[in-house]
């Protein structure tokens, strides 16, 4: 029994090192994950998934996105070049100068623009 206590503590510590925020709009769903690394760094990953037909993406030249929390503010563009992508999910490794990890109670504001369509929503 005593052998399991250190293993259980390690699992609890590792499980507490990542925060995941999710949300959706009529056309998009998003996931933002923040994870502390062993070397005191922070990995941030942001993914957007288009909820419509993949063929709809062919007409778009680019997807512009931004998200903002108390700890980070990120924006970027993913070029589509008028081609149908192989997947409706776009993942981005996020670089931020912030060394603060988002608290699980934070709300992340998201903006996605594809062509003239603009959608805003929140991740919790």
From TrEMBL:
Signal peptide residue numbers: 1-20
Entry keywords, A to Z: Signal
Keyword Signal: yes
Top-level taxon of origin: Bacteria
Protein name: Lipoprotein
């Amino acid at each position: 029994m005593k052998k399991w206590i250190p293993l259980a503590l390690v699992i609890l510590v590792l499980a507490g090192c990542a925060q995941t925020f999710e949300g959706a709009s009529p056309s998009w769903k998003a996931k933002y994950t923040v994870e502390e690394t062993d070397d005191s760094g922070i990995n941030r990953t942001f993914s957007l998934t288009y909820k419509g037909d993949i063929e709809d993406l062919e007409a778009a030249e680019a997807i512009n996105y931004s998200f903002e929390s108390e700890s980070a503010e990120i924006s970027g563009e993913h070029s589509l070049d008028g081609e149908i992508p192989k997947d409706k999910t776009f993942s981005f490794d996020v670089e931020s100068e912030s060394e603060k990890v988002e608290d699980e109670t934070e709300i992340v504001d998201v903006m996605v623009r594809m062509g003239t369509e603009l959608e805003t929503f929140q991740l919790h």
